Amino acid sequence: MSKAFNEFIRGITKDNPIFALVLGLCPALAVTTSVNNAIGMSAGTAFVLVGANLMVSALRNHIPSTVRLPIFILIIATFVSIVDMVMEAYTPSLYAALGVFIPLIVVNCIIIGRAEAYANKNNMFYSLIDALGIATGFLLALVTIGGIRELLGTGQIVVFGQMIVNIPMITPASYMILPPGAFLTIGILMAIINHRRAKKLARGE
Amino acid sequence: MVEKALFAIFMEGLFVKNFLIIQFLGLCSFLGVTKDTKSAAGMSGAVIFVMTLASIVSYVIYTFVLVPLDLQFLRLISFIVVIAALVQLVEFVVRKNIPSLYRSLGIYLPLITTNCAVLGVVLLNVMNEYSFLQSLVFGISGGLGYTIVMVMMSSIREKPQFFLYLLQ
After folding, report:
1. Shortest CA gap A4–chain B (Å)
2. DSSP letter string, A175-197
């Protein structure tokens, strides 16, 4: 059981998709204008990640290795189509806010990366754990970026219609929810994390 | 919907809705292949080619196959297959004719398949209900806008001493 737990934690820390593997940056920058969008995007990605990891792991002994990538992409595209239709039907406002990025989950490098690097070699149970861990890491990263941008850009954080934080500011830095804010936020966060990692390595050796 | 002028679409693809820095599509290659200008330019050339062809082919498939058969929900799967086939084609051509470029592009050439910019162009064409000419223009201008940003970024990264000199 402890191995399973370690695999789960690994997805959040050592193999964090955004800050450690640097995969799937497009959605991390584009839809993190608010915490709400970040959560919606992570939920969609998590569903596809879990579904694709389970499916690839279940079929791993039947997929010929020469054509494995097209098969992975078709499996992923199937799950993305499901998410696309479900979100359009049940959460239309979220669907409108995320726009083209829901169908673009299909080309999110995280998912095909996990299918190739993990699910293709491990059994279904560990593939599920791996998918859950990576999805949680993705969620935490997106919510962090989205939280910083929404707080600095509008002075408040609203999640599902509930006001969580409200700091009255005279002039919110509205450029934080525009594209430059995304690059600034992720650049500074990555710099901090890499600096800490370098210090840790220096102390370890 | 009012028909948009082709020139307006062209400027949108090039600057106003630039794929890399406004819409955040295709960032993997933006960070990965901009270490020197030569491979950035090569990658951009391949992306322009794939984007333009993908716009044309996916328009034809969507309008003449998927819509008449009422199969729009298969659009994602069919577009990704079209793009994968086109990328394979580009790979053959580049490997045969420009082997040095093929080596410097490395893993990023097959990765055009999973470049969000290419699939993004195709999906945005469908979402905005562009006609054939509009799709074609959006594809070309998107590719050109990508090229401009890639070349600028790689020039900045290639000559850091110039910027250090400015800072002194």
Report:
1. 30
2. GGGSHHHHHHHHHHHHHHHHHHH
